[in-house]
């Protein structure tokens, strides 16, 4: 089994009313989907997502895709 790791640091823009901030993945979803589309022979076994940071530090999102090759 192998793993592909995708990481994106999301830009933090402090505002007075943080609840009104737009939530975005910074293009991470598109990056994962493009990789999956480019590798149709891979069989995904597990996907894990973590996020760190926030408050006064930029949020860092990490997605780990565990897969096997069908060859």
What does this structure look like?
The two termini are 13 Å apart. The chain is 15% helix and 49% strand. It has one helix spanning 28-38, and strands at residues 2-10, 42-54, 57-69. It has 71 residues and is an alpha+beta fold. Strands 1-3-2 form a three-stranded antiparallel beta sheet, covered by helices on one side. It has a single domain, classed as Cell Cycle, Chain A (2-Layer Sandwich). A hairpin with a 2-residue loop joins strand 2 and strand 3.
> How does the overall form come out from the CA principal axes?
elongated
Could you name the CATH class? Alpha Beta
Architecture in CATH?
Answer: 2-Layer Sandwich
Order of helices and strands: EHEE
* Terminal-residue CA separation: 13 Å
Tell me the number of structural domains: 1
Main β sheet profile:
3 strands, antiparallel
Question: What is the overall number of helices?
Answer: 1
Unreliable segments of 5+ consecutive residues = none
Name some characteristics of this structure.
single chain, 71 residues, alpha+beta, Cell Cycle, Chain A
Outline the fold blueprint:
Layout: E1 2-10, H1 28-38, E2 42-54, E3 57-69
Antiparallel strand pairs: 1-3, 2-3
Write a compact overview of the structure shown.
This protein is an alpha+beta fold. The protein has one helix spanning 28-38, and strands at residues 2-10, 42-54, 57-69. The longest helix has 11 residues, at 28-38.
């Amino acid at each position: 089994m192998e793993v592909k790791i995708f990481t994106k640091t999301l830009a933090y823009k402090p505002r007075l009313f943080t609840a009104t901030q737009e939530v975005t993945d910074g293009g991470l979803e598109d990056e994962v989907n493009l990789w999956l589309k480019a590798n149709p022979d891979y069989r995904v076994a597990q996907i894990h997502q973590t996020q760190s940071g926030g408050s006064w530090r930029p949020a860092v999102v990490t997605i780990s895709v565990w897969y096997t090759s069908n060859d």
